[in-house]
Amino acid sequence: MTTTTAPAGTARRALVIASETYGLRGCRNDAELVGASLRAHGFDVHPVHGPDATRAGILGAYEDLIRATRPGDAALVYYAGHGSTLDEGPGRPPGAPEELRFLLPTDIDRSTADDFRGILGDELSVLQWRLTLRTRNVTTLLDSCHSARMSRDPLPEGTNVRGRQARWPRGAVRRRRAEAAGLFRRLRAEHPDEPWYDDNPHAVRLVACSPGQRAFEAYSPEFGAVHGLFTAAVVAALDAGLTWHMLGERVRHRVLTHHADQRPEAEGPTSRVLFGEARRERPTALPVRLHPGTASAWLDGAALHGIEVGDAYLLGPLGGAPDPATAPVAVVVEVRDGAARLVRRDRRAVPDGAEARPVGTGRPAGPVRLRVDGGAEALPPGWPDRWRAAVPGLRTDTAPAVGDLATIVVRPDGVMLFDTAGRPLYERPRPLDGEAAARVGRDVEDLAVAARLRELGPGSVPYRLSAPVAFDAVVAATGAPVRDAVLHPGDRVRLRVRHLGAAGAGTLYANVLDLGVGGRVSVLNTAEPSGVELVPGESRSLGRWPGGEDPGLPVSWPAGLPRDAPRFETLTAVFSDRPQNLGVLVREGVGGRRDVVAAPSRDATRMAVLRVTFLLCPGGPGCAHA
């Protein structure tokens, strides 16, 4: 294990909470294990457990952490214990979610009709936001679950679930939630420029399982005591050289190996290196799925990811960094039922727990034309080869530019990029230096990915869901449909995904993509990066604030994109019957800022794709839509 120390002038503090209630046996063990590991990484650890882990004790310790934290400090909050939910049902108040989730302190049984002793998720969100107002370097680890939806399958001997259901005082719970809503509104008023989209954009969160799953504890031979599967996996994989995304991938694979019904998730700015604010670019890597009967290797979502026969991938462990010189290479040999089958070039088996990183295919991103204004003699020697390498399939002929994805214009004062309609994507020429071709090539690739995703629709996936789904997008101010509307920067849109299937139809997962102007691709369901979990009949909103208010997600114009004319933007909802993390589709786009700030066929992942397109007008003197 690699350890680090805090930069000079900063501190590392951790609040480590263990609430061992209702038969749990490993929470205190977890807290001690995590505390020892964090101390090795230079953290000052404040443990809260036993009689101190009451509602008041936990909240008081969190307040102490907020007060002590200074800009640049590292702050980490860890919790091991039970979680639970209150099902609001059909009579819930306006704006309330179907479930209220909370943690169970050690004094939860002392709750009364007027004094609920649980700690709501909304309350934790407010505390976490206050902490990120002090420092951006915030991490939360939760080894618990909310078990209202969980199946009642028999548990392996010696295994406990960290979720608890009981009859909770509904009125007292709602009052706690109303208090959290008031605190959040006050913070929004005091800090109007601080972003909040589907979640806190500054805090990294690692959670033991998805909202509808169970988190387990059992005896760990590695550590010689009862521990949460999630906690044991985190401590075993903790290495300061990793990013939180890499750690999350390793933890997920380790936990799923022990128990297939617990899928940990990593949320927030997971490209950060552990315990710091430095970021490392997230690799474009897809998890490899092994068919349980044949052990054949598959990549799901072939249409989403633009996978074709002949594409090559480097194979490596989840969350790893394979060496291109030594890593095995696998090639797509068929695309069937929405999935792509991989075969290693050396004909060996693909191991379990692998991910695939694409090797350059040389396939054109789309029809892209290169034009030189002012004479090619002024350009450096060898420039055509450099540009063709950066943009495969680049055309230099003079045929009519019908259907071109983009046009690159090289001129003495720099390089410009134009979209398919001939509109400029740069406000001013970019420098024509040695890196120009590579930079423009990345912009063209972003445009190609966005264009491919924009073409997806209900008929794009061959293996469709058996249950009906819906995707609603309305203008927050008017309630009018977003489809074919004209929106301006500052407008807000409310987004909702719905599972319309009957009872027994199975859980679905919804990812919502914003295909913005300028080639930007954003995933808007940041609070549940593997898809918003939906049980039959359930409806979920994106971007809801703690406390229940749904102001809608704001629309913005990308910085650096000319404000010359309206441009089309598309919102696409991808529903699947398995968790699908579509973060690998994220693209910066030309402006570098989000617009909406946000096998055998039976084994293939079922999907459904729904989309909504609108016109985004930059406003200003030329706007004719006011």
From TrEMBL:
Q: Which GO terms describe its cellular component?
A: cytoplasm
Residue stretches spanning the membrane:
none
Q: Which Pfam family, just one, is annotated for this protein? A: Peptidase_C14
Give one GO term, molecular function aspect.
Answer: cysteine-type endopeptidase activity
Gene3D superfamilies according to UniProt: 3.40.50.1460
Cite the Peptidase C14 caspase domain residue spans from the record: 12-267
Q: Which GO terms describe its biological process?
A: proteolysis
Q: Looking at the record's lineage, which domain of life comes first?
A: Bacteria
Any idea what this protein is called?
Peptidase C14 caspase domain-containing protein
Which species is the source of this protein?
Streptomyces roseolilacinus
